[in-house]
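Task: encode each sequence below as structure tokens.

Item 1
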Amino acid sequence: MTLEVLLSAMFLKDYRYIDTLNIKTDCVVINQCDQEKHETFIDSGRNIRFISTQERGLSKSRNMALKFSTADICLICDDDVEYVEGYSEIVKNTFLTNIHYDIIIFHVKKSKNDCPLYFQQKELSFFSILKARSVEIAFKRKSVNEISFNEMFGAGAQYSSGEENLFLFKCLQKGLKALYCPIQIASLRDGPSTWFTGFNAKYFHDKGAFFYELLPKFSFFLILRFALFKHHLYKKEISFFHALKTMLEGRAAYIKETKTG
């Protein structure tokens, strides 16, 4: 069983940046920058494909990495992840002992006191899988062969987040099975978010579009539920009715755009 890390990054000087992330396995690096260049390096037993591209958008980067990957197992990575020693064996052994699962979500520690979502292995449903962060996702490449990231969503795209949730949701809709494993494989470095700048109008507008793309028939209910259950998080920045109104406007704008586009 082979494993590749799929790293999305911007303006890297060269492939050696992967050493700062403790990547010890084969790797596909998508480096969004100002040139078009495809390079392959063999370094410390690692096969490294370093793809420089002028394309922009995180989902485009993820899809390009999938295109160039050849491994059995893919592990999604960003440039603020630091892997633990032995992460490759953890991931491969978990797949080998859970052969019926196509996707496994591992624990990536966000802060000192961050705990796993669950403290034991658990099969994930359509809604529990929405709690996963992109860098926690590992999957069998052949299982997702006909599934891609929605390029309208994600950092650098029109709608600033939610691409990993849409990808995972689509995987389950296609009949794939997902498992949560509480073993830590990496930590996140401290730093500003690439997309979250506060509970502002842009945030709620994009949420409205996201909920429609996720479940069109139930999007109004999902928007209302989000406005109610997350009110304690955003109430100091925006009112309940303004948040609800802005999400509905985002939903309407997305419907119009996708139907006319």
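Item 2
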Amino acid sequence: MTILSKQPFKGIYVLFAMGATLAQMPIWILKYIFQRGRQHPTWTFKQAFGGRLLNAVLHHSTVIQMDGALTLNPGKEKDRFITIAPAQASYYAGPLASNDAVKPATIGATWYPTPPSQTADFSTAIIVLHMHGGAFVIGDGRTEASGFAANLLLQHTGATHILKPQYRLSTLPASATSNPFPAALQDVVTAYLHLVHALRVPAANIIVSGDSAGGNLAIALTRYLAEHGAQLSIPNPAACWLFSPWISPLRSDEASVVANAHFHVDYLPVSFVNWGIAAYSGLGGLALLSDPYIDALRAPFATPVPVWVNAGEVEVLYFDIKRFADEMGAVAGNRVVLDIEEAAPHDCFLVGKLNGFEGAGERTARRAGVWWEGVRKGGSG
């Protein structure tokens, strides 16, 4: 935590950042009004300007380490917001019990479009358990931040309900109570167990899904079920969707990101990535990031769950995502499909409405739905 994350310095910096950003906007306009000045030759002015503005917002949010405090109050979501108590301790085994200071906790979650009734028949429902992105440090799954992505799934994939868990966010300075790994993964398991145990949703009607850091959690959950599910009597879901998943925080250090061929095209600032890495690793330090439940590269695993992996063609994470898909697909019995959205930056599924890539988000969701329909009919998608 820096001095700029505390008042009154935080307020002063926010005013400075707003002024500096406004001062730079005429320069951005002059640069991006011409196609040759844009980050990618096929991007529109709105996409180029939106990407640069999003980069600035994320950077300044990092400098002040924007408050990630979560509440279990329903708020604007009203009856769509629920709280979920953790399951019995025995369900949190292996990596979920790797830090004695991090225990399962009660979490919040938001239903889209509406919560199912207590007597709901899930035999024909398709429930998506979706984990939001945000580098493990921002986001909450609620409507303001995640409504766009939830609506894409509802409109284009055949999903009937979306449940977005409000998993614990990691904070700095690192401490025993700063929610480092495996806090978020514990919460994801809590949400999954709520579906299969409390609501008795057939696992064959559940799709595990996630974008960016949430994609990392979706992979970790799928791995956990593959390695511990049988022993704990937790069934596997029907499928897994990964939208621009953050495959390897370990390989997202500043030098690697800056050297990435897509660094000057994508909107992700190094500062934001570093914040997420430091907070999620906690007191365990960067050595913890090599855990296969955090770093999915070079650690493929066998799973009966069909996996659909999406990447933006020009996002910083593209190369790791492609490598992950190749490694997972090479495991005997795995069914993995790599989907590429042409000329797209990181996670249009989540932020497409903010940076002019709504169409990319819609196309991506539509292809996820087509793939799922193929899986339902007995194919590989």
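Check on item 2: The longest helix spans residues 9-32. Strands lie at 81-84, 107-112, 127-131, 161-166, 206-211, 239-243, 307-312, 336-341.
End of task.
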